[in-house]
Inverse folding.
């Protein structure tokens, strides 16, 4: 078992205690709920099925339920768009209270869905729990609000995880106006309504697991030991962080996740692979396949290096984005593809079009540097230039003004030193010296007083 100690708290891989799940039933009691539905009416069916469902939820541990109703306090003639009320708050045993309240509700007024959602934010206690809303309605927003925007805003604030919407007798052309609130179910008849209620409870309370398979180019699950993050696709915040594990038999392990959240999966290879809006089936085992073939880049310099830790900037081929800064003497995995290197030698070495192939190691070596030694301790102004093959001189660096005595590593090649002492009173007293640097050798260039 892996255990970290952080600020006195112990974090490990042991199974966490299950949080409380709170289910708020948001029931439409507008006047239209009195409409006939099969052998009864919509409201009577909804009341009966809700009463049975709430009773059945008592067998679950760590589950609390509450009831908010809208459209039941005032008639339509009043046109009250704030007609919503939390009739039974959350508690450890609210079943009897909800069942009793259901018998008292009489449908009367409007359908203020947006305002009811807004008010529901205060119905949930402010602690860590899995908050769920189940909206049961036979109509659309009637008070000019935007229930979809309100639902999204509350989800982003983590007021509740996922709203479920059950439409009773909703015309198919209006379903889109409800499906953006949350996961939508069309209860076309009484039997479907009962089935939907059971399905929602199953999704909410059943264990959900996932396995992530990291595939190579042939679709084989051979990659592993990579950090991966399940991000909340609404908030962008991480919900789960794992380092991928695969058994000796090539099987990825099973992870428990909360199926009520929307996820993006980030596999933190270099560069990262992002799977947007991954599909999770609640109450099931889900296998998520991510194509992430990798090759290895090995940076090596023979012999001791006067550079010390020599870094190289790794970029996607033809792009300015920095993917990684890799030190010489290290190996690092990258997704298969083509990369450019900028090696921070003096002068810098640029390598373009480095191909990394799946499961293979690409070895990159550079010539060992030599060294430029200036033994003179003189104050002045000077620069070192690289002499390119076409005769062009390219500036590399300036010498320290207070003391010209330096030893610096340079890659093999031809160079030029341009220097004027601080005491020299004219530009004509500038010294120009050409010199050559060879691998592993020291070249001494002297500056004389004038």
């Amino acid at each position: 078992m892996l255990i970290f100690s952080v600020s006195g708290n112990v974090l490990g891989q042991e199974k966490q205690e299950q949080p409380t799940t709170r289910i708020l039933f948001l029931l439409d009691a507008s006047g239209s709920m009195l409409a006939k539905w099969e052998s009864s009416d919509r409201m009577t069916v909804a009341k009966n099925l809700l009463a049975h469902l709430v009773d059945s939820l008592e067998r679950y541990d760590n589950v609390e339920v509450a009831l908010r109703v809208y459209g039941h306090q005032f008639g339509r003639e009043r046109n009250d768009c704030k007609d919503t009320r939390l009739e039974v708050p959350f508690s450890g045993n609210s079943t009897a209270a909800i069942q009793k309240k259901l018998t008292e509700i009489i449908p009367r007024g409007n359908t203020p869905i947006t305002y009811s959602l807004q008010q529901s934010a205060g119905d949930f206690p402010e602690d860590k729990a899995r908050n769920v809303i189940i909206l049961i309605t036979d109509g659309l927003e009637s008070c000019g609000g935007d229930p979809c925007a309100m639902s999204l805003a509350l989800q982003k604030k983590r007021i509740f995880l996922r709203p479920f919407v059950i439409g009773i007798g909703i015309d198919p052309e209006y379903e889109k106006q409800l499906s953006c609130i949350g996961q939508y179910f069309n209860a076309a008849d009484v039997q479907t309504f009962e089935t939907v209620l059971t399905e929602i409870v199953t999704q909410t309370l059943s264990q959900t697991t996932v396995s992530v398979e990291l595939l190579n180019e042939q679709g084989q699950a051979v990659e592993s030991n990579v950090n991966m993050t399940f991000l909340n696709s609404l908030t962008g915040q991480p919900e789960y962080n794992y380092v991928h594990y695969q058994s000796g038999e090539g099987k990825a392990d099973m992870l428990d996740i909360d199926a009520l959240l929307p996820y993006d999966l980030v596999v933190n290879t270099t560069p990262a692979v992002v799977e947007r809006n991954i599909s999770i089936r609640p109450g099931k085992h889900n296998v998520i396949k991510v194509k992430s073939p990798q090759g290895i880049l090995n940076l090596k310099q023979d012999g001791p290096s006067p550079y010390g830790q020599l870094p190289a900037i790794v970029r996607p081929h033809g792009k300015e984005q920095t993917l990684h800064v890799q030190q010489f003497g290290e190996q690092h995995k990258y997704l298969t593809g083509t990369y450019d290197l900028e090696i921070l030698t003096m002068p810098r070495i640029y390598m373009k079009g480095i191909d990394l192939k799946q499961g293979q190691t690409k070895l990159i070596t550079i010539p060992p540097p030599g060294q430029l030694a200036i033994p003179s301790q003189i104050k002045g102004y000077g620069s070192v230039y690289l002499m390119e093959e076409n005769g062009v001189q390219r500036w590399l660096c300036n010498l320290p003004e207070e003391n010209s005595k330096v030893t610096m590593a340079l890659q093999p090649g031809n160079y030029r030193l341009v220097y004027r002492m601080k005491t020299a009173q004219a530009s004509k007293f500038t010294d120009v010296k050409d010199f050559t640097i060879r691998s592993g050798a020291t070249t001494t260039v002297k500056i004389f007083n004038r």
Notes: The two ends are 72 Å apart (CA to CA).
